[in-house]
Amino acid sequence: xxxxxxxxxxxVRLFTGLDRDAREVDQNPRDGITFNLPKGTRxxxxxxxxxLPDRYSLAYFVNGKQAGLLRKLKEGDEIACLRPSAGG
Length: 88
Known about the structure:
The protein has a single domain, classed as Ubiquitin-like (UB roll) (Roll), CATH 3.10.20. 14% of the residues lie in helices and 28% in strands. The protein has helices at residues 18-21, 43-50; strands at residues 7-14, 33-38, 59-62, 65-66, 78-82. It has a 5-stranded mixed sheet with strand order 2-1-5-3-4, with no helix packed on it. A hairpin with a 2-residue loop joins strand 3 and strand 4.
């Protein structure tokens, strides 16, 4: 069992086909994937673990607000990853 003082739990939701491209192929965007990570983990490390393609061109939201890859994650954070799209 992980030491709660040294780990955090976050939920990741993959949209716009990223669920097919990432390592976690059996992911429902509604439910997401739960990750237990070391405290102080940045979003960049999580994207590496997911093996997301073109991770620098994707859009990330943490708890509904746009976030950069250097954002430190906290216990209970909900992360959404998606490809930006244009249209009008």
